[in-house]
Design a protein that fits this description.
The chain is mostly helical. Helices cover 57% and strands 5% of the residues. The chain folds into 2 domains: 64 residues, Orthogonal Bundle (Helicase, Ruva Protein, domain 3), CATH 1.10.8; 54 residues, Irregular (30s ribosomal protein s13, domain 2). The chain has a two-stranded antiparallel sheet. Belongs to the universal ribosomal protein uS13 family.
Length: 125
């Protein structure tokens, strides 16, 4: 088992597909990291300790250089951005509070599911 970016990666599974599941690392960024490190996309997670430590150091250093936010840091940044919108009483902040679409999507026929769920959540409390 490899522990990388606050996530446990399983042995003998494709390393590329396991990295994609980490919040903040998408397909294109993971392909970029593999290409820069001359890694094969079909490489599997293994128990090889020396290779694992080397790979961890390279990936972590590349992500730090690019200032990429992952998992907990990314969630914290998103939460702080929404709180900032709410604190300045912007329209977007108001839409976040109501649980409605924020970026101008149509609400008459779309987003009924989320409005229904918000209705049940508000009535449950």
């Amino acid at each position: 088992m490899i522990y990388l970016f606050n996530k446990t990666l399983k042995n003998n599974k494709n390393f590329f597909f396991q990295l994609i599941t980490i919040k903040g690392l998408g397909v294109s960024l993971t392909k970029y990291l593999f290409k820069k490190n001359y890694l094969n996309l079909k490489i599997k997670c293994s128990v090889n300790i020396l290779g694992e430590l080397f790979l961890k150091k390279k990936l972590v250093s590349m992500i730090e250089k690019k200032n990429i936010l992952l998992s907990v840091d990314l969630e914290r940044k998103n939460r702080l951005d929404v709180e900032a919108l709410i604190s300045i009483n912007s329209y977007k902040g108001y839409r976040h509070i109501l649980g409605l679409p924020v970026n101008g999507q149509r609400t008459h026929t779309n987003s009924r599911t989320i409005r229904r769920m918000n209705f049940f959540i508000l009535n449950y409390k």
